[in-house]
Amino acid sequence: MSTKLVQIRLPEDVKEKLDAIFANEGTTTPQGLKIIATQIANHGYSPLTFYYKQYSRPISNELKQELRQEELKLLGIASNDAQVYPDETSLNQAFKDHLE
């Protein structure tokens, strides 16, 4: 498989932050960015679509609302999906089950 070189210039502080983040994950910034680019190419869409309308097609308000509702459900914030814990012991157990 042939490869192509992609180069970018980043502010020094951004590069240093990336280096620290990727080093913490056991890789380098170039390898981390290669992984991200490969995932975007393999999945056929960019996560930036939701954040930078000027570079992509805008998403509908209905989709934004659905995404917001799903996020609230996942966080247990949506009132109809919220779990009730009768005591501190069961609440602490829930934290252990979901966060560890």
How does this model look, in words?
InterPro entries: Arc_rbn_hlx_hlx. By secondary structure, this protein is mostly helical. It folds into two domains: 8-58, no CATH class; 60-100, no CATH class. Helices cover 54% and strands 0% of the residues. It has four helices and no strands. The protein has helices spanning 12-24, 29-43, 61-74, 88-99. The longest helix is centred in the middle third of the chain and has 15 residues, at 29-43. 0% of the residues are buried.
List keywords for this structure.
extended; mainly alpha; 100 residues
Question: How would the blueprint of this fold be written?
Answer:
Blueprint: H1 12-24, H2 29-43, H3 61-74, H4 88-99
Mean pLDDT: 78
Number of extended strands: 0
**Strand and helix order:** HHHH
Helix content: 40-55%
Shape: extended
What value does the Rg take, in angstroms? Answer: 20 Å
Class from secondary-structure proportions? mainly alpha
Distance between the termini: 40 Å
Question: What percentage of the residues does DSSP assign to strands (E)?
Answer: under 5%
Number of helices: 4
Number of domains: 2
The biggest sheet amounts to: none
What's the oligomerization state? single chain
Give the uncertain stretches in residue-range form: none
